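hey so u asked for the seq, here:
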Amino acid sequence: MPTWVGAALRPELADATDGIISAVRAEVPEYARPLTGRFGARITEGVSVALGQFLDLLGRDDPLEDTTVYRALGQLEHREGRTLAALQSAYQIGTRTLWQRLAASTTARQLPPEVIFSLAEALFGYVEQLSAASVAGWADEEASRAGSLQARRHALVELLARPATPAELERAAAAAGWTVPPRVAALAVEDAVAVAARLPGAVGADLDPVGVVVVAARGEPDAAWLERVRGATGERRAVLGPVVEPAQAHRSVELAQAAWPLHAAGRLDAGVPLVRADEHLLPLLLAAAPELASALVERALAPLRALPPGAAARAEETLRAWLDAHGDVTATAAALHVHPQTVRYRLAGLREAFGGALDDPAARLELAVALRAAPLER
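ran it, structure tokens below
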């Protein structure tokens, strides 16, 4: 590009800034607003600086080094709520408008075709760099805002996981952009932030040792609501706490988190990804007091420990089936796939081993609980 081209074009493009801005405002709805305040100043600055810098660089080998203005412009566009598509459209329309002015100028008519081609290549390559800087600024602002919002949502979930006053909850919810629903339920799950993004009205945080999602609910869980939760968790193991009022969210969080280690270890409905904590309260109770559970197992099931291994396993299986059948011999036999007489024979041996415990309601309850706790001991 001859060095004189930029200087010759400058007076011919003296009013090009206004023309470019008018074209952008006419064709991109997001920019169809008065050129007042910060908006007008930054747009005018962006176009005029871009045009002047382009003319300065024509015919020189100097690279474009400073794109600060255009990066800041991208950040401003994000803060003003304009989309990335609108920003890129503005650059495209501005480039087209400037090229039309260039092609119609007196100077351009004096240039040989190969120089015109070089001029076009220079213009489009130059604007591509400016556009890339603005896109980077817009993306930085988006990432910063997303990170800041997630930090506030993380703080909100941490607040919901402990007792909090309504005023504290309202302030944290407003900061996180979350509308407090009338009822909520906690979900203990890995990848909580990703799961929350799939549930309307949910907030999530990847806490330690497992993430928590607070899910909006209207009342007691129905089939459609539970299906949405299952769809969001997919094949991940997850524990759903009870539905409570927002002020009691910590209770739902505590129960879901307490059940998580048992479910992760396959002790709650093995093979089922999503379980409800309030359907497994007995295992949770036993897990909450492991020393007491161990003592109960040791004392209540001591007669089984005294039997030979094979006989002990058969006696335990019979005792479980008999207790589950509420003492119904026929139902016990069906569960064990044996004859009722075989069950009566085995029960006679159990009565001999356990004494009067099988006929005492409190003792039978202890046996049933001890048998439930026994797998936790293995």
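The radius of gyration is 36 Å. The chain has a mean pLDDT of 86.
lmk if thats what u needed
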